Amino acid sequence: MSTDYCPGPGGFAASPVSRRSFLAHAGGGCGMLALSALLNRDGLLAASAALNANANPFAPKPPHFPAKAQRVIFLFMSGGPSHVDLLDPKPELIRLAGQPIPESFGTFKTRRAVAKNKLLAPLREFRPRGQSGIEISDFLPHIASCADDLCVIRSCRADSVTHPESVYQMNTGSILMGRPSLGAWATYGLGSENQNMPAFVVMPDPAGWVKGGAPAWSNGYMPAAFQGTILRGGESPILNLNTPKGVSAQQQRATVDFINQLNRGQLAPGDEDSELGARIAAYELAFRMQSHAPEVVDVSKETTATRILYGLDEPRTAEFGLRCLLARRMVERGVRFVQLYCGDTNGWDGHSDMEGNHSKLCGASDLPVAGLLKDLKSRGLLDSTLVIWGGEFGRMPMSEGSNGRDHNPHGFSMWLAGGGVKGGQAIGTTDAVGLRAEGEVAHVHDIHATILHLLGLDHTRLTYRHNGRNERLTDVAGNVITKAIA
After folding, report:
1. Burial class of residue 213, CB neighbours in 10 A (0-12, 13-18, 19+)
2. Do 35 and 67 share a structural domain?
3. How far apart (Å, rounded) are the C-alpha atoms in residues 344 and 79?
4. In the predicted model, what is the mean pLDDT of the chain?
5. How far is CA 217 from CA 60, 329, 371, in A?
6. 27 and 142 both lie in a single domain
7. What one-character DSSP code corresponds to residue 408?
8. Which domain holds residue 461?
9. Given a cut of 50, is residue 9 above it in pLDDT?
10. Alpha carbon of 214 to those of 71, 178, 227, 336: distances in Å?
């Protein structure tokens, strides 16, 4: 016999429960416990856990399998750098320069659209670099000195010819805004190693934001805590972070505690209000950052040799060099994902005067990027830090006007280094003039799947429940580029 709840005047009543009934119910409960454990193992309970506003969204989480990379630095060349002038040597383009594109390349629509445009030869000579012999342009002599650490992917492909849509796709996997960015997915899946700094930091070019703007580093449909935090150089790297004059640390702590107490009073147990939960987490993180962020961005104690390595002593490299140095300092302190944008609102978008455009931007970024790779390597950080270099698309092999190149999402180049990447190799090919990816084509979804794999995350298992669907960064596509992995 047992006492079960029975609705009615008495509330409880004695009702018989047989041994068989008890064991059946108990067995079902054990089955649900087992199912819960299996779902948790497969990451299918992660969305509910992340939405719990009382939980720390940045608490470290285990990867799906042993990770080769612990953190990421994404060097985003905003505007579309020209692969045929930088990373993809095309002798046939030199031979055919000044002629219309042969009919054997592209569709009729493509040929008709460019019928008046002649093929434009690469602007710099390509040379074999390092022991691996990867051919890299003279536009990038300093990055070329790190050739044996680079995995150049020459067969990248995207889906849009316009900047905002392509920026969104390279950052979020979709040409439409409103989806979580790569940095948001990484921090959602792994959390952060440093609870006193943001897990995902973005450093835009101070001369102008990337086309498409903030949705490129958005949290999308995830809780607001996963959006990228903007960081700038100088005395106030994060706006409105400094404690007001005349307010002590104790007063600031009391204010934050009081505000959070009021906010938590609006949360029911298990409340999944992501905006309010993110606000609570933001207040806490901002208070901790007031003590820790100034030290992270203070480069005054860096050696003269380090400052020269990043180009801080040269006017044209000093700005981007400082941001590259800050990126190293942040990953050194456990920040999970750092993204730097090189190029203002137009950036590498060389519709005219490719020579002037790429000379300026290569001159500003080549030395600092190489300095970052060498500095990470000398400190033993490169093996655990994945460095990504690339833009939203490449450029056409035909001229636009007399000396420019138009957008080309059909075939372009990126490179990876460190973080479990097999360096000293080039993967994939474009056709003879660099118009379209042909061999070992790497769609943006494949690139994202590879990045997540290096972080120990299976892109098919890293999902987030949204509108009744298990969403993922790679949608329903994506294959890991296994040749890129050491």
Report:
1. middle
2. no
3. 8
4. 85
5. 21, 21, 25
6. no
7. E
8. 55-484
9. no
10. 22, 10, 9, 19
Residue 288 has a pLDDT of: 59
pLDDT of 141 over the 70 cut: yes
Contacts of residue 363, Cβ cutoff 8 Å, sequence gap at least 6: 316, 317
The verdict on 209 and 278 lying in the same domain is yes
Count of domains observed in the chain: 2
Average pLDDT over residues 133-158: 98
- Compute the average pLDDT of residues 463-467: 95
Is the per-residue pLDDT at 224 higher than 80?
yes
More confident residue, 153 or 208: 153
pLDDT for 102 equals 81
Domain contains 50: no
Write the single-letter amino acid at 476.
V
Q: Are residues 409 and 467 in the same domain?
A: yes
Residue 381 lies in a domain: yes
CATH code, 245: 3.40.720
**Cβ within 8 Å of residue 218, ≥6 positions away:** 172, 177, 178, 179, 180, 181, 184, 227, 228
Phi, psi of 406 (to 5 degrees): -90, 175
Write phi, then psi, for 383 (nearest 5 degrees): -60, -30
**Cα dist. 485→52, 252, 339 in Å?**
35, 47, 22
Q: Are residues 34 and 97 in the same domain?
A: no
For every residue of 23-82, DSSP letters joined together read HHHHHHHHHHHHHHHHHHHTTTTHHHHHH-TTS-TTS----SS--S-SEEEEEEETT---
What value, to the nearest 5°, has the Cα angle with vertex 128 and ends 356 and 425? 105
Q: Give the residue, 41 or 243, on which the prediction is more confident.
A: 243
Domain match, 34 and 59 both: no
Q: Are both 162 and 259 inside the same structural domain?
A: yes
Decide if 57 contacts 223 (C-beta within 8 A).
yes
Same domain for 22 and 84, yes or no, is no
Q: What is the pLDDT of residue 23?
A: 64
**What's the pLDDT at 33?**
59
Percent of the chain residues past pLDDT 90, beyond the cut: 66
Structure-token pair, residue 347: 């950036």
Q: What pLDDT is attached to residue 197?
A: 84
Determine, yes or no, domain membership for 48. no
Burial class (CB in 10 A: 0-12, 13-18, 19+), 218: buried
Q: Which helix (H) or strand (E) holds 471?
A: strand 469-471
Task: Classify 299 as helix, strand or coil.
Answer: coil
| Averaged pLDDT, 186-202 | 91
